[in-house]
Automatic annotation (TrEMBL), chain A:
Keyword tRNA processing: no
Organism: Roseicyclus persicicus
Family annotation (Gene3D superfamilies): Bordetella uptake gene, domain 1 (3.40.190.150), Periplasmic binding protein-like II (3.40.190.10)
InterPro entries listed in its UniProt record: BUG, Bug_dom1
Family per record: Belongs to the UPF0065 (bug) family.
Protein name: Tripartite tricarboxylate transporter substrate binding protein
Assigned keywords, A-Z: Signal
Signal peptide: 1-28
Family annotation (Pfam families): TctC
Record keyword rRNA processing present: no
From TrEMBL, chain B:
Annotated InterPro entries: DUF112_TM
Source organism of this protein record: Roseicyclus persicicus
Entry keyword annotation includes Transmembrane: yes
Keywords, comma-separated and alphabetical: Membrane, Transmembrane, Transmembrane helix
Family matches, as Pfam families: TctA
Record bears the keyword Membrane: yes
Domain of life: Bacteria
TM region(s), chain numbering: 12-36, 48-71, 111-137, 149-166, 173-193, 205-225, 261-283, 356-379, 391-413, 419-444, 465-491
UniProt-recorded name of the protein: Tripartite tricarboxylate transporter permease
Domain DUF112 stretches: 21-440
From TrEMBL, chain C:
Protein name: Tripartite tricarboxylate transporter TctB family protein
Ranges where the DUF1468 domain occurs: 8-138
Keyword field: Membrane, Transmembrane, Transmembrane helix
Transmembrane stretches, start-end: 40-63, 75-107
UniProt source species: Roseicyclus persicicus
Keyword Transmembrane helix: yes
Pfam families xref list: TctB
Length: 324, 505, 146
């Protein structure tokens, strides 16, 4: 009896020893997507992770972790508290995240992190169903100015989030007095908002182009305006808001941050790696086919850009009444 | 007949050696992941995504592998529900209600066989629905607005009182506790943290899988410890190793009804497999519980929810593929993978990538057959698991649940929460309060609240929107009818027992 | 007395539900969300209070709590679970899991040596299954040794 137990113990020990030898280090680089799978941040992490691996810029695979909650606040809090100096960690963020920071919705200020780079941007669009009587941006803004509560609008952010603010910026620029009277409905993603609009639940969607491009191509929805300086390359026929006399742009750039105590050396190495990635065909192709416009800002330039944008966003939020 | 030729072309895609190999591997891994408590389809699929990148499979092969894992998980979840009274994943909770009692009565082989065949029937019906009507159904599902979803959840929770236990108040209270727990975390609409006690681990809310394994697995061990080792049966007796056809055949209508209900729930984005299996069980019980055998090991109580959750899993692929809207956590992961492989699901997918869609459909038919063939012979092996003495089986099960939860979240806090839920689960079971409604409340509560708040945002605060659409009115009428029927049946049974008592006395 | 446990449970849930409902009222926002974050918790909290109060007044069912020696075993098992959670990151996954399986096995009345052997096999075994086969990274040695 005892002998048998001893044997099995020895076996176990041998097994354990064998494993220590073969144990590979758990993949070193990790990208946190602060959302559930499927959204823009998830795309950022998965695509960047894949391309980093393809180009051999990191060892092994990049492990993508989904840490949803509070529009990025959960991941932000976790990195601030537990992994501020982790040099193998990158986290996806975007205009949406900076909007939240500017409105004080994250548990720590913007400066808690170091911002690495932006690699592309999605363009905001305002769309209606193809059966809608609203034919142009002017129709929409006139209707909103006449009765702000008449139309139900929606998108993928909560009240006061980036999708909402972009729409309010358009309304603000075209003479709508009571911005808070515009009805806004939050959905879990741009696609959800569009399908609910096709089902007749809401009248107008404000969200990013990338996620809903399929519905534009299929003719299910009509895009009234692209909130970009130049027409979107893939959809040259869609007029910009500027070309219709409404001076509003609303990009949603995609970028990455890392912990605030990461060394300059590691920070610079990341910026360099991401620039190589940005210039690769792999990234350019993946970004364009996902509806992004590739744009590069990295290192100190990007840090300054994020700060400026947060300041602007805070001002807009205050003007519109999202924060006091 | 166009569909037939499309499916035919799909089989040409599916029947390459690589795809068949991936399919079989996916089925096997999926069944294993589903059977391990703590790991479900969501993480099962997520775990395998890096693998598809590493080997550079094309999108079609990747999707075939991951969907096979997905379907495999849905088959596998039932195994520990039936044998251990611990659901392998969320959609398998309903299977504990009658599956475990069947196992205790020595009917483990039959319960596994019925649930296996039911899984096959449900999933196959869903795949047939997917191949014939996907675009049409997706177009119909978009007419379901926030107010209609709210009505659907009201129907679910109003009927919850009937699922288990003697005292409907306790069942309802359990559901409300679940709904309460679902509100913990940062509110996605307003960004306000609620009930987080300033602990950032709670910002993301309470993960249903953590509550699920804590409530069922830890409490099961505490319950077993009540009995001294010699009182406790060494292992559950097993009357037979192999299932009997005569036990399976009578549940055929329950399987078909369950498949129908589950499929509808699956097609609606946001309802998902858990709601599918729950509704399938409730409707089957209402229809067939003439002799009060449900909850005590009625085979139909195993067949309905298992066909329901598998049909819902298949149905959830419809909005994912043809609208790009994920109907459940797992389809959200599948969607993410497709997007990162440069495939954009949506209204044009069927036209632009017929190879991918029809190759997937064909593989799903094959996966179902493979899973049925794989699962039936395994019944004998799994049933022998019941012979393992409790002192050896349960500690390993506990370890598996701890590892499963930790391996996904890497969070010690989640493990602490799991032990805490174990204590709650033990107390509730001692007080004869069913745990199933709590888990359902936690799973569906967030969506229920968001549906209500979206409806109110649309109407600008006018509550009448909740009963403004034909769909929601129909659902409320169903709810009232259901409740009235339950009350009537309860009164009738009460009179009957009284009458019997009188004649006996 | 029958029903005491149910009454106690009802009272505890009532207290939690009352706190929950009161707390809900503090979640106010100023902009753009019609119903706000406070209404749904109130919709859940009030029926919870009613139902739990009704359990206090009209309890149903009888509860058969285990004897003192059994309670000790349950407490020991819980202590093992909590200890496992606390030391797991320090001593690493296989060792902690081996100890967990062995100790719970013994508490459940298994022959001690068999329980230990089971732990020694399954501790590293589960680590291998999750870390090596499924690719969910788990610490092998932990902070103390690693």
């Amino acid at each position: 009896m005892k002998l048998r137990t001893l044997t099995s113990m020895k076996l176990g020990a041998a097994l354990a020893a064998a494993m220590t030898v073969t144990a590979v280090p758990a993949s070193a680089t990790e990208c946190i997507a602060p959302s559930n799978p499927g959204g823009g941040w998830d795309f950022t992490c998965r695509t960047i992770g894949r391309v980093l691996g393809e180009l051999g810029l990191v060892e092994g695979n990049v492990q993508v972790t989904n840490m949803a909650g509070g529009v990025g606040a959960v991941a932000f809090a976790m990195v601030a508290a537990e992994r501020p100096a982790d040099e193998d960690l990158i986290v996806a963020t975007s205009t949406v995240g900076v909007t939240q920071m500017a409105q004080g919705r994250y548990p720590a200020p913007l400066e808690t992190m170091r911002y690495l780079a932006m690699l592309g941007a999605d363009v905001g669009v305002i769309a209606v169903d193809n059966d809608s009587p609203i034919m142009t941006l002017a129709d929409l803004t006139a209707a909103m100015a006449a009765d702000p509560s008449a139309l139900v609008t929606g998108g993928s952010s909560g009240a006061g989030g980036w999708d909402h603010i972009r729409l309010l910026m358009v309304a603000d620029a075209t003479g709508t007095e009571d911005l808070s009277a515009i009805r806004w409905v939050q959905f879990d993603g741009g696609t959800d908002a569009v399908t609910q609009m096709m089902g007749g639940q809401i009248a107008v969607v404000s969200t990013d182009m990338g996620e809903i491009a399929g519905f534009v191509e299929s003719g299910d929805i009509r895009v009234l305006a692209a909130l970009s300086d130049e027409p979107i390359p893939a959809f040259p026929d869609i007029p910009t808001a500027i070309s219709q006399g409404v001076d509003v742009t609303g990009y949603n750039w995609r970028g990455l941050y890392t912990g605030g105590q990461v060394s300059d050396e590691a920070y610079n190495a990341w910026v360099e790696r991401l620039e190589t990635l940005y210039n690769s065909d792999n990234w350019q192709e993946a970004a364009t086919s996902a509806g992004l416009v590739p744009i590069w800002r990295g290192g100190a330039e990007f840090e300054a850009f994020v700060r400026d944008q947060a300041a602007i966003m805070e001002q807009i939020s205050r003007d519109i009444g999202v924060i006091q | 007949m166009e569909v037939l030729s499309l499916i035919g072309s799909g089989f040409l895609v599916a029947l390459t050696p690589l795809n068949i190999g991936l399919l079989l591997m996916g089925c096997f891994v999926g069944t294993l992941l589903g059977a391990l408590p703590g790991l479900g389809p969501v993480n099962g699929v997520a775990v395998l995504i890096p693998l598809t990148f590493a080997f550079g499979f094309d999108p079609t092969s990747s999707l075939i592998l991951l969907c096979a894992v997905y379907f495999g998980c849905m088959y596998g979840g039932r195994i520990s529900s039936i044998l251990l009274n611990i659901p392998g994943d969320e959609p398998a909770i309903m299977t504990t209600l009658d599956g475990y009692p069947m196992a205790v009565q020595g009917q483990a082989a039959n319960a596994l066989a019925i649930s296996g065949v039911a899984s096959f029937v449900g999933a196959t019906i869903a795949v047939i629905g997917l191949s014939l009507f996907a675009p049409v159904l997706a177009r119909a599902a978009i007419h379901f607005g926030p107010a209609d979803y709210f009505a659907l959840y009201i129907l679910a929770f109003a009927t919850i009182g009937g699922i288990a236990g003697v005292d409907p108040r306790k069942t309802l209270l359990s559901a409300l506790i679940g709904l309460m727990l679902a509100t913990v975390g940062i509110d996605p609409i307003s960004g306000v943290p609620r009930y987080t006690m300033d602990n950032f681990h709670l910002y993301d809310g309470i993960q249903p899988i953590v509550a699920l394994v804590g409530l069922f697995a830890i409490s099961e061990i505490l319950l077993l410890l009540e009995k001294s080792a010699k009182d406790r049966p060494k292992a559950i007796k097993v009357d037979r190793w192999m299932p009997q056809w005569s036990a399976i055949w009578p549940t055929r209508w329950a399987m078909l009804r369950g498949s129908g209900v589950g499929f509808v729930a699956g097609v609606l984005p946001g309802a998902g497999a858990s709601l599918g299996s729950f509704m399938a069980y409730v409707f089957e019980k209402q229809k067939s519980n003439g002799k009060g055998t449900f909850g005590k090991g009625d085979p139909r109580g195993v067949a309905a929810p298992e066909s329901g959750n598998n049909a819902a899993a298949g149905g959830a692929l419809i909005p994912m593929l043809s609208l790009g809207v994920p109907g459940s956590g797992t389809t959200a992961v599948l969607l993410a993978m497709l997007i990162s492989l440069n495939v954009q699901p949506g209204p044009l997918l069927f036209e632009r990538q017929p190879d991918l869609v029809w190759g997937l459909v064909a593989s799903l038919y094959l996966a179902n057959i493979a899973l049925l063939i794989l699962n039936l012979p395994m019944i004998g092996i799994f049933t022998r698991l019941m012979m393992t003495p409790t002192w050896a089986l349960m500690p390993v099960v506990a370890a598996v649940t701890f590892v499963g939860v930790y391996g996904i979240s890497n969070s010690i806090f989640d493990l602490e929460l799991m032990v805490f839920f174990g204590i709650i689960g033990y107390i509730m079971r001692k007080l004869d309060i069913s745990l199933v409604p709590l888990v359902l409340g936690l799973l569906l509560g967030g969506d229920m609240e968001r549906a209500l708040r979206r409806a109110m945002s649309i109407s600008d605060g006018d509550w009448s929107i909740l009963i403004a659409s034909p769909i929601s009115i129909t659902l409320y009428v169903l709810t009232v009818g259901f409740l009235a029927l339950s009350v009537w049946l309860a009164v009738r049974d009460h009179k009957q027992t009284q009458a019997e008592r009188l004649t006996e006395g | 007395m029958t029903g005491t446990s149910v009454r106690l449970f009802g009272a505890a849930v009532f207290a939690i539900a009352a706190l929950y409902t009161l707390q809900a009222d503090t979640y106010q926002i100023t902009f753009g969300d019609v119903l706000g974050p406070s209404v749904f918790p109130i919709i859940v909290g009030i029926p919870m209070m009613i139902l739990s109060a009704s359990l206090v007044v009209f309890p149903t069912g009888t509860v058969d709590w285990p004897g003192r020696d059994r309670l000790w075993r349950q407490a020991a098992a819980l202590a093992v679970f909590i200890g496992y959670v606390l030391v797991m990151e320090q001593v690493g996954f296989p060792i902690a899991t081996a100890a967990l399986i062995a100790l719970v096995g013994i508490i459940m009345g298994g022959p001690p040596w068999h329980a230990v052997a089971l732990g020694v096999v399954f501790g590293p075994g589960l680590w291998a299954l999750f870390d090596q086969v499924l690719g969910l990274p788990l610490d092998f040695l932990g902070d103390l040794f690693g």
